[in-house]
Design a protein that fits this description.
single chain; alpha/beta; Rossmann fold; 2 domains; six-stranded parallel beta sheet; about 40% helix; globular
């Protein structure tokens, strides 16, 4: 079997990091020798990694985004200068160490999981190496990304996209590139456990980084208007730079008893919460192929999600296992959320459909597509 290298920025909580972990585990299970080339060592990996998977950390430096942000916020000039200089070093080194690692690999397969890694792979990857790039987010027609796809992916053998829509758009951008083949391979779940009789709590769940792109402030505003009379609460799991502002919003609206922010939980705890919830809510401004929706549906949760440009529509079948709401339509979002919370028969019907839909993203189903493009020696 070929050796497979997978690039990663870090291995902490996140959809990309979960996808990397699951792919690495699935490949070693099928006989591949797998090594993860990881830039930052931020601690114990968030997700369970097979002991056969080798992890090589390329740098001892840590990102300092939060420290730099705090320095700017407090207007501490000496600290701003210090953190700014360190930040420049980190940005330089994280590119250099990945480029050096790619240059040293003479054969096998390299799967890059970030655009900057894909650019380096195309530029420095050797001829004897199969080069596979992945896009784990929506390009949103950003000029920088379009330019990279057109001019800096010319030596990439396969470009793996998460949805058909992304594939069709990227193919147009790369029309002059006759070498790179665009293919669709979605994310998958490793464990598809049967859903038994569960004791659901009166709670609606949302999980993710507390970052502005996730739109949690929209969900809190919706919950203010939702005004559950039966004690149903909104539970938000995650941590990030928006934590303080979101808590301020909760306090401002007097929702301290109705919106619970748990902070970051282990993956096992997140799964427990999913199995105890009524439904799942997503108000992101942008997504690509949200892992968390597949997990929620596998746990029997119908979904209410804003139908942003790409992402939820690739997973949720509207009115079958959830509701896709025109982006920003609060009234309809609240109406469908209320329907799922109050109508047991509707929720149970959609719950069964959600579980069935999640099985289409099983490991065996998706890995067949990976095996079709991996060079096996």
């Amino acid at each position: 079997m070929s050796k497979v290298y997978i690039t990663s920025l870090h291995l902490m909580h996140g959809g990309v990091e979960m996808a990397i972990t699951l792919l690495a585990n699935a490949l070693v299970k099928r006989g591949f020798d797998v090594e993860i080339l990881c830039i930052y060592n931020l601690g114990q990996p968030a997700y369970s990694i097979d002991e056969k998977v080798k992890i090589t950390y390329l740098s001892a430096m840590h990102p300092n985004r939060e420290e730099f942000y705090r320095a700017i916020k407090t207007r501490n000039i000496p600290l701003i200068i210090r953190e700014g200089i360190y930040s420049v070093k980190v940005l330089y080194l994280k590119k250099k160490v990945m480029a050096d690692a790619i240059k040293q690999i003479e054969k096998g397969v390299i799967i890059s999981t970030r655009n900057e890694h894909s650019v380096l792979l195309s530029k420095y990857g050797r001829k004897g190496v199969e080069k596979i790039a992945q896009l784990h987010h929506d390009h949103k027609f950003e000029k920088r990304l379009i330019n990279d796809f057109r001019k800096k992916y010319t030596n990439i053998d396969y470009f793996v996209l998460l949805t058909d829509r992304l594939k069709d758009e990227v193919k147009v951008m790369m029309k002059d590139n006759t070498h790179t083949k665009c293919v669709v391979i979605p994310n998958f779940l490793a464990d598809m456990n049967e859903i038994g009789d569960l004791q659901r709590k009166r709670q609606v769940l949302a999980v993710g980084r507390l970052h502005e792109v996730k739109g949690f402030e929209r969900l809190i505003k919706i919950w203010k208007r939702f005004d559950a009379k039966d004690g149903t609460v909104l539970k938000i799991i995650g941590d990030g730079q928006e934590k303080e502002s979101l808590q301020h919003l909760i306090d401002k609206y007097g929702l301290q008893e109705k919106v619970i922010m748990t902070g970051e939980l282990s993956h096992e705890k997140v799964m427990e919460e999913m199995h105890q919830s009524l439904c799942y809510a997503m108000t992101s401004y942008s997504e690509a192929f949200p892992f968390v929706l597949i997990e929620a549906m596998a746990a029997g949760l119908p979904v209410v999600a804003y139908d942003v440009r790409v992402g939820p529509a690739a997973i949720v079948q509207n009115s079958e296992n959830g509701f896709l709401i025109p982006d920003g339509n609060e009234e309809l979002f609240i109406d469908k959320l209320r329907s799922l919370c109050q109508n047991d028969k509707l929720r149970e019907k959609m719950s069964e459909s959600a579980v069935q839909r999640s099985r289409e993203f099983s490991e065996d189903s998706v890995m067949k597509k990976w095996l079709d493009i991996l060079r096996i020696e």
